[in-house]
Amino acid sequence: MCYDDNARPPIPDGSLGNAYGEDLVLTSADGNRFMAYLARPEQTSDRQVLIYPDIRGLHQFYKDLALRFAELGIAALAIDYFGRTAGLTSREESVFEFRPHVQQLQLETFFQDVEASLSYLRQNVGAQGSIFTVGFCLGGSFSLLSGTKPDLGLKGIIAFYAGLSRSFGDGPSVLDQAKNITYPLLGLFGGADAGIPVSDVRKLEEALKLKGIDEKIVVYQGAPHSFFDRRSTDFAEASSDAWKQVQDFISTHS
């Protein structure tokens, strides 16, 4: 598990504006209804992020994260993965057993949900907005895989501690699919993440360089998986820099 119910995203440095958020239910092309949370800045934004949560789906950490983005002037839509198998039920840690639902995830239907989410952003937030994916853990893997879909019309992909050895069904690993990424990429990893060896991160970096992709990979030495947490005061400097990297990446590629 990436974040528990008490985890909260760090506060970005600098001046923050006002933001407001709302719970949504979106519908995919196959009729699947899934939960989402939209956070809007006070002023109209031409920058947008689609947030892919960790393995637990849409829980409070990602609603708060969406609001932090909106306070920076970036509209944010966080989505859930489990509408097909768990419906619109709570994703609170105490009541939701995520593992059986994760095992049933399929890339084809996941990307149907992504397309519905992107359509919602373009129709309701800004048709000409620059859209980026931002994913964490499982969502980081999904963010990298989104990078292999040029028809999504993204401006870039951002992945926090993406599982690189993960595969879906009988398909190749996320790392093996990196050669198909077409968008600019920002990858943020912990150097002490026991589940994601730095050697795999360097293989990802090399694959992107060989492809000629505009990429930046940052490894925070000594930082564990899920270091991006307001409670992790020992890694506050890494969290602050991660926010800066994300903002700079979005500004550069918008």
TrEMBL record:
One of its GO terms (molecular function) is hydrolase activity. Residues 34-253 form the Dienelactone hydrolase domain. InterPro entries: AB_hydrolase_fold, Dienelactn_hydro, Dienelactone_hydrolase-like. Pfam families: DLH. This is Dienelactone hydrolase domain-containing protein. It comes from Ktedonospora formicarum. The lineage of its organism: Bacteria, Bacillati, Chloroflexota, Ktedonobacteria, Ktedonobacterales.
